[in-house]
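Recall the central idea of this unit: under ordinary conditions, the amino acid sequence of a chain determines the structure it adopts. In this exercise we apply that idea directly, starting from the sequence alone.
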Amino acid sequence: MKEAPSSSPVPIPVARALRKLGHDIRDARRRRIPVAILAERASIGRMTLNRIEKGDPRTSLGAYATVLFALGMVERLADVADPRYDSVGLELEEEHLPERIRLSRRNKPSKPGNTESQ
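Accordingly, the structure predicted from this sequence is:
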């Protein structure tokens, strides 16, 4: 009988994105602060920080966010899934807009040439 894998596989683009994020965090940390101090400020262990810098998908999003906060970069995290940057979602939303909007009878402008007696 085979053992179950220790972690669920992630899609290749996700693995690449996490690896890039980890490397970017590592580069930012190297310019600013030693591993031990960043781990302490983020309230995580050095091994967890090491996994973050490698882009390990098993590491919690909270740990990534805390490290970004400790590096002074957390504001970018808030824009990750901002609807303003969701081009596919915006296109789909536009497809569902009504093609024609009808005015109610009260709001219809009067026809040209149709004069009311005063």
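The two ends are 94 Å apart (CA to CA).
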